[in-house]
Structures are given as structure tokens and as C-alpha cells.
């Protein structure tokens, strides 16, 4: 199981531009496990993570071949698109949040103990998430034809089923994913390895650990 220290970043409370500059100096962690190798892919993905006590800050970097995404309303099927995901449970809780975004910034968040028992987080909370995306697409130019970045700030209020006053000192169990179910070459990559017969990200027993400093 992987363990990650999540650093505190001061000086960037709500300004995404300032957050972006600070996050650029954070290490990039590869999402490079392919638990289901029958789904071959040349996609490359990684993330940086930090917090500013009031929000979790995540920056994704992705390279892949094809662009297939739609601008969607809140809590739609973004996993079918060029998609990145972050699942987290706080403390020793068995229920976890699934936070999913496509490369256009369309957002879905759910909560529950397993795949079949999810509470959809209300749009009033999702509207508080700050998102910035950058896409560079050159069709038919190889394995890195599509390069995209996504920056998000997830305030404590988004985690509406927990009572989080500040992230500093918290422990979480989490995994990070890259997928695209409806892409020409579907794929399912993870940060922490998953042992399952078929693609399934809703496997909290394979989450790694996050320690918020």
C-alpha cells in the first residue's frame, strides 16, 4: 500500500492562479498501475496534491491519444470521457467520496460504502469546487496527441458527510485514477494497485494512505 504525505501550502486560499503557481512546484505522482492489462493504453497520467487547511488542492497532468468528452451537468457520467478520479475516506470511516472530472471540468461527486450504495452530493456543494482546465489537442499526432491539465480546489464543505474544520493533521485512505470507458481504447489506471477480476475503482480495500501535514 502506498503512503503519501500531503503538504500544507500557505499563501493561496481562493486564487486559482496563485494555487497553480504553488502546485507547479509540487512532485508529480504517477497513476501508472494497470490492474487490467487486457485494456492496453499508452495514456500517461499523474497528480500533485496539497492542502491549504480549508481545501484539498489537486493538479492532474495527462497525455493520451484521443479526445472524447462532453460538457455535462453536475453528477453525470464523466467516466465515459477523458476522465480523472479521486476517491477518499477520512479517518477510519468505511464510506468514501468519489470525485470524478472529465477534461472539460465537468464534475461528479458521490458518497457511500460501496459501488451500489452512493449518495449524490448536491449541486449546491459542487458549485463551491474551483476548477481550471487546459487542453492541447493535435489530432492524429501519436500517443501524446492530447495533453491536458486540470487544477481543482476542493473546499471542506464539499465533504458534506464529514465535519471537517481543517485538513491539517487528518488521515485519509484514497486512490487516484485515470479512465475513459467510451474512448476508442478504454483504459483503467490507478495510483495504488487494485486486485480485482474486472475494472472496478470502487474497491476501498485497495486505497493507499494520505497524511495531511
UniProtKB/TrEMBL annotation:
Domain Carbohydrate-binding per the UniProt entry, residue ranges: 25-212
Gene Ontology MF term list: carbohydrate binding; hydrolase activity, hydrolyzing O-glycosyl compounds
InterPro entries in UniProt: Carb-bd_dom_fam9
GO annotation, biological process: carbohydrate catabolic process
Superkingdom of the source species: Bacteria
Identification of the protein by name: Carbohydrate-binding family 9
Pfam families: CBM9_2
